[in-house]
TrEMBL record:
The lineage of its organism: Eukaryota, Metazoa, Ecdysozoa, Scalidophora, Priapulida. Residues 126-136 have a biased composition (Basic and acidic residues). The gene is LOC106810283. It comes from the Eukaryota. Residues 124-144 are annotated as: Disordered. This is Uncharacterized protein LOC106810283.
Amino acid sequence: MSEFPHLKNDSSLELNRDVSIPECSDILVASREFDRLRRDRLTDGVRDGIAEGQEKALQGGFQDGFKHVVELACEISKLKAQLSTLQSLRRNSVTLSQAEELDGLQRDLDDLLYKLQDSIGTPKVEGQEEGCRGDGDGDAAASDVRGELRRLEERVSAIIAQIYASG
């Protein structure tokens, strides 16, 4: 018995004599071309999916980081505004050491703003060697800025209390 029982005998298989060799060759070429195009489209789809996923993740990280930095910058700016107001309103009633302390706090807050700016990096400027300014570890730098901001807030509260206690 034959290995292929559904085929009764070899004579039942007839070649289609109407199909020429060039036509078979064209079908084979078209089939290969179709497979190649399908593979290419699949590869393109995977690449597009990866790129889109990376872009969404990058955008989400940017938005989170931007929100965090803006919050810190606003806190620093509010503290600077409080100090400026205090300096203006109490100009004649502060001692020399208190005035120096207020000036020092303003400088420290300015430095803190610059540190925050450095932590996020800035676009490359012609002549700079690196692609962005900053330490590359924005989370750690922002955490340092937050800690330093808390210490400055305590100093500001202390000097305000001291000025109002003596005035």
